């Protein structure tokens, strides 16, 4: 490998508002700070990859609006010499998310405006021009056009992934967390054309109908191997990886199961949790691109996710892979 990674899908401007608590209906919550940050699968995972390896080409594919928000996104991306935005198209309005982040807990809630993310479709990906080794796209359930049915492939996303695989490019997909029953209908068609599937415990459980948390929100680790197996059976050809606050879990192409605990972060370490899942995904993808095994990939994902928690922005805490591995080695681990 050496042609880099392409990241496609949601390109979003996050408006992060730190609050004392999430309000109930008709009540008030105080905003202590507001800042602007790039968000979405492309911005978060793509910038994390660019930070992990400044020598690796990272190609962005998506839509931003013909507006000031779109200008700001592209301006910020110019700070990364290894990010190529030539395949980012402009039309309509830029997607944005109001991110409400609780100061004490780090919990966050999202209010999303679709804009360009809703419009992004198969025709917006110049498959014939793709020159990369790995193509990552997200998020399923937050790309309105690509989530639509397709008479041949099941969904438009599945059609896109099939066309990319036909070029000999490895594929990866990510899913957004939402409170719905759409997972089992919309996610599986894409998995038939997916090489790497990296999702959290909520998304994975909902996709196969086997929850990974109980009614008290406790992780059910004994169920994780079965969920991984069911996801592989849906068509994922190489790795299925599940991340949760407690750890990372994976099943590789040889059915080798890995379970590793997350880092035990000291009090005050977490400045914000926006983008931690994307950072985990970037760590795993970088390892896959470099040819490391799934155990190293999950370690890198855990370290990169922890680093992203150090700052309120999604990617500001991520550094080169050598520093991420040093962080992993230096910190105590949780008990699974």
Short description:
With 336 residues, the chain is an alpha/beta fold. The chain is built from 10 helices and 15 strands. It has one domain: 3-Layer(aba) Sandwich (UDP-N-acetylmuramoyl-L-alanine:D-glutamate ligase).
Q: How many strands, which pairing sense, and closed or not: the largest β-sheet?
A: 9 strands, mixed
Fourth-tier CATH superfamily name: Ribokinase
How many discrete domains? 1
Radius of gyration: 19 Å
Query: Within the largest sheet, what's the order of strands?
Result: 5-4-1-8-11-12-13-14-15
SSE pattern, N- to C-terminal? EEEHEHEEEHEEEHEHEHHEEEHHH
Round the mean pLDDT to the nearest integer and report it. 95
Helix content bin? 25-40%
Shape: globular
Task: Tell me the number of helical segments per DSSP (H or I, 4 or more residues long).
Answer: 10
How much of the residues is beta strand, in percent? 25-35%
Gap between N and C termini: 34 Å
Query: CATH top level?
Result: Alpha Beta
Total strands: the figure is 15
Oligomer: single chain
What CATH architecture label applies? 3-Layer(aba) Sandwich
Task: Describe how the helices and strands are arranged.
Blueprint: E1 5-9, E2 12-19, E3 31-39, H1 40-52, E4 58-64, H2 68-77, E5 83-90, E6 95-102, E7 108-113, H3 116-119, E8 134-140, E9 149-150, E10 154-155, H4 156-165, E11 170-175, H5 183-191, E12 196-200, H6 201-208, H7 224-233, E13 239-244, E14 247-251, E15 257-261, H8 276-290, H9 294-308, H10 321-330
Parallel strand pairs: 1-4, 1-8, 2-6, 4-5, 8-11, 11-12, 12-13
Antiparallel strand pairs: 2-3, 6-7, 9-10, 13-14, 14-15
């Amino acid at each position: 490998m050496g042609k880099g990674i392409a990241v496609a899908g949601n390109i979003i401007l996050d408006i992060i508002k730190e609050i004392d608590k999430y309000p109930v209906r008709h009540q008030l919550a105080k905003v202590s700070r507001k800042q602007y940050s790039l968000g979405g699968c492309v911005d978060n995972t793509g910038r994390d990859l660019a930070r992990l390896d400044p020598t690796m080409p990272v190609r962005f594919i998506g839509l931003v609006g013909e507006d000031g928000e779109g200008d700001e996104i592209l301006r910020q991306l110019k700070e990364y010499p290894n990010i190529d935005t030539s395949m980012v198209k402009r039309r309509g309005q830029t997607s944005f998310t109001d991110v409400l982040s609780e100061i004490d807990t780090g919990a966050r809630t999202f209010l999303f405006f679709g804009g360009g993310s809703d419009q992004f479709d198969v025709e917006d990906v110049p498959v014939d021009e793709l020159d990369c080794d790995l193509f990552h796209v997200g998020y399923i359930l937050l790309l309105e056009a690509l989530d639509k049915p397709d008479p041949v492939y099941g969904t438009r996303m599945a059609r896109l992934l099939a066309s990319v695989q036909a070029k000999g490019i490895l594929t990866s997909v990510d899913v957004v967390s939402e409170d719905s029953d759409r997972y089992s209908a919309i996610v599986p068609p894409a998995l038939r054309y997916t090489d790497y599937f990296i999702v959290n415990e909520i998304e994975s459980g909902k996709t196969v109908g086997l929850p990974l948390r109980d009614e008290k929100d406790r992780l059910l680790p004994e169920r994780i191997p079965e969920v991984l197996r069911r996801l592989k059976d849906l068509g994922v050809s190489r790795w299925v990886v599940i991340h949760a606050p407690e750890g990372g879990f994976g099943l590789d192409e040889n059915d080798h199961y890995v379970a590793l605990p997350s880092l035990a972060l000291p009090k005050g370490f977490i400045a914000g949790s926006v983008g931690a899942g994307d950072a985990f995904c970037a760590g795993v993808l970088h390892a896959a691109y470099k040819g490391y095994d799934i155990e190293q990939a999950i370690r890198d994902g855990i370290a990169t996710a922890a680093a992203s928690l150090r700052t309120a922005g999604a990617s500001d805490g991520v550094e080169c892979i050598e520093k991420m591995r040093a962080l992993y080695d230096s910190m105590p681990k949780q008990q699974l």
